[in-house]
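ping. complex inputs:
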Amino acid sequence: MWDNRCKIAVSGVGFSQATRSAETPLAAHALQAVKAAVEDSGLAMPDIDGLATYPELPATGHTTVDGISIVSVNCMMAMLKLPNLTWHIQTGSVNIGGAVQQATNALLAGVCKYAVVWRAMHNPRGTYQNLPGAQATGPLQFTAPYGFGGPGQFHAVAYARWLERHNQQREKMATLTVTQRKHGLKNPHSYFKVPLTREEYLNSRMIAHPLCLYDCDIPVQGAVAIVLTTAERARDLKPRPAYLAGYGQRLVFEVAGRIPSLSNYMDAGRSSAQLTWQRSGFTPKDVDVAQIYDGFASSVIYGLESYGFCKEGEALDFIQGGRIELDGDLPLNTFGGSLSTGRIHGLWHIIEGVLQASGRAGERQVKDVNVSFVGASAPIVEGTTFIFVKEPY
Amino acid sequence: MSDWSKVTRPIPVPNELSKPFWDAAKQGVLALQRCQSCGHFQQPPYPTCVNCMSIDLKFEPVAGKGAIYAYTIMYHTGDKRFAPAVPYASIIVELDAAPGALLVGNLLEAPYTEAKVGRRVEVVFQPLNDDITLPQFRLARAGGAS
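pong. complex structure:
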């Protein structure tokens, strides 16, 4: 087990409003979320001495403007002018989960006391994923000329292979999307406010077969944030903390330009999960509630299978029969997932893992939660995994 | 069948790593980067062998027969250049002679519904302009080898 098991905790969490279009600059959303997280902790802004984020906009073919389409650490520093700042970082290789892990490491190293991690996501005008213009350079020269690289396609190829190799049916995914939306209706921060029916799912238009409209999270403009600190300090703060029992990250490498979704998701997800199980001392059977990244619904399959919740090829059967309901054996994406909150990446999943562990999930609180699991990105892309617990035992 | 006649494709720009691939394609030859130490083929080309870390890499011709490893049918019309071909199949092909090296293509000369994992395909060459010819795929012809 990890020497630092349960030595770091998440305290406050914060949200901005999530809007479909970018009426206000993204920096304002990020600031709103960060302020809310600090306030939720019962701290004042001068207490914050650590900052971390993963700023990238995952859209393609759009210009990057700091404060408008991303919110870098530099931008946040300029806005907050923290008088006691001692540490900051931007991560690249493992998405926002990597920023949370770096903040954890900085707190363990004693180089800061209260770290804020935020994720701000812009929704650019027009098509989200664009092929390049007249010329295809770099890795795109082998994909874009074929009209490959537009919305959903990179994830769709892996899903098609999974379905056909395992003789599975995409219609079974309706259970996941309908159940998540039901959970989302109990989340005041959900973007969608109306139920999704099985019929609506099955009749929805195709984006990139086998991914239909409701398999894709909706791009929004919004931000979320958390405050991390040591377990000792967290106990003196306002909310009940969630203790970090262990974390892991994807260890399988990717070659630039190779079709990422086609690498072995089982190896990638397993590598991150194994670290997490080993460090925390838990197994999948110990998990009371799980958040598994669902930017595309198919990513939940790879998470459930590679993290060890079910066997390879069985995820779409595993989620049936009420198992992922709030009172089921494995309540899943209890905040509604990205499919309900909109595309703000895995910090939302981490926040829900925290809220469930600390008993602060309100109307959607799962009963008797001790062990709360989070897969914060698609295991085949930039996967990280976490376990939060209610008591540091 | 997808209508490709009105589609304007982005033109590949060869670089230091990829130039031999496009030079060969222009001659109607499919050539992939191969490690001279361990024999591993890789696509896209990379500065080192991703299998054994050797830097002794050369492009070698490979037979253009293989199977569909994965595919997607594109319905989204966000890119107006490709909208006339929607719905169209983008396929990922694993060649018999170069396992692990995955090539992207469209499934030409067949309805998009023919795209299925494991379906046999063979390379065809589609000139885009005087400099660039695109390797593409069609269903393997009956009677052909394997």
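The radius of gyration of chain A is 20 Å.
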